[in-house]
Amino acid sequence: MLFIANKLVGDASIMLVSSFFELHFKIIQEFQWASIFYPALAGSKTPLIED
User: Fold this and answer.
1) For residue 34, how many other CB atoms are within 10 A of its CB?
2) Which of 2, 22, 35, 46 places its Cα 20 to 30 Å from the Cα of 13?
3) With contact defined as beta carbons under 8 Å apart, do 9 and 16 qualify?
4) Which residue from 43, 37, 30 is spatially nearest to 22, judged by alpha carbons?
5) How do residues 2-31 score in pLDDT, each as one tens digit?
6) What is the mean pLDDT of residues 31-42?
7) d(CA 9, CA 27)
8) Is 49 a residue whose pLDDT tops 80?
9) Dist CA 3 CA 46 (whole Å)
10) Chain mean position to CA 16
11) Distance from C-alpha of 22 to C-alpha of 13, rounded to nearest angstrom
12) Which helix (H) or strand (E) holds 44?
């Protein structure tokens, strides 16, 4: 019984973490200015000031 409860808690926390990252990346995709703050995730460095 305890094992089943532990498994359920583990599955729930994995779902929570994955949905958090999904939301985080969705926000980054929707707001292009976020690439300034997340250059590594965006894949390229966006200059703060363009000539």
Assistant:
1) 16
2) 35
3) no
4) 30
5) 777 788 888 888 888 888 888 877 876 777
6) 62
7) 27
8) no
9) 48
10) 11
11) 14
12) none
